[in-house]
Amino acid sequence: MSERFQAYQIGKNDDGQRCVLTQLGDDDLMEGDVTVDVEYTTLNYKDGLALTGRSAIIRKFPLTPGIDFSGTVTASDHDGFSVGDRVILNGFGVGEVHSGGYAQKARVSGDWLVPLPEGLDTRQAMAIGTAGYTAMLSVMALEDHGIKPGDGDILVTGASGGVGSIGVALLNRLGHRVVATTGRMNEKDFLMNLGAADVLDRAGFAEKARPLGKELWCGAIDVAGGNTLANVLSQLKYGGAAAICGLAESMNLPTTVAPFILRGISMYGIDSVMAPIEKRRIAWQRLATDLDLGLLDSLSFDLDFSDLPQAAEDILDGKIRGRAVVKVP
Hints:
By secondary structure, the protein is of the alpha/beta class. The protein has helices spanning 45-52, 122-145, 162-173, 188-194, 226-235, 258-262, 277-290, 296-299, 308-316; strands spanning 4-13, 16-25, 34-43, 68-76, 86-90, 105-108, 113-115, 153-156, 177-182, 196-201, 217-222, 236-244, 266-269, 300-303, 323-327. Helices cover 28% and strands 29% of the residues.
């Protein structure tokens, strides 16, 4: 008999999509060569879009949402993983076209899994989650560009969110001077405790950007897009770089070529979904060593599995600070 397990499932009909908490069986699991008992998952901005249906994130129905999870392998036909291994999954279309982490059990390709690094447990892995992993990829891009501690200030936009908050903490731990922006200035003390040297109101980046602004930042991590990113690019110092990993403000980029050709700046697109597995392993290994794990308590909070639908509304409305960690029942 197929074993039953709890899962959120999103279906679609003529009235739109609908999310329900239900019981599924092993026969409902999707294709894959590794089966995982999911221990923790989390709530990302993309998950909020998927659960609420505000954006067409889910492209195959019915589907279990949740773009990341951590847990223990219970069955494997993959050479790289054995029963009992602790693993992490981010991206690869999970929670979009392949059922994801909002269930007690998942079946996926072993090629998508990263071994849990020594020094992290499965809860810490999801306190970091896709947001922290994306922040690490962004930091690595700035390092690959040649930006070093002492070169100048690095700006992190949307710093109260998951990517931004971990980005601030990582950069500070690595010796950089970090300036954070946020739309919630009541979070200033929170961001200063993470390591921000200064906190700016995002309203100062909301207006149309000039082709060239005052040179302020040697690098930046941007989660916003839109006018915010255009202003950031116009303010990068000569030879500076921005790692672009979000579109919380807008998918548009109303800028000019001026800062690129007159100041030689660079812009790096950060793809966390389909990044090569070796880069993922490096990013997770570095998170285990470069992130102050003691800060995770202040960066994260526990969210009940049953509260995910309401929390999805809250994250889209900007009401959630830091990382929501969900223990799967």
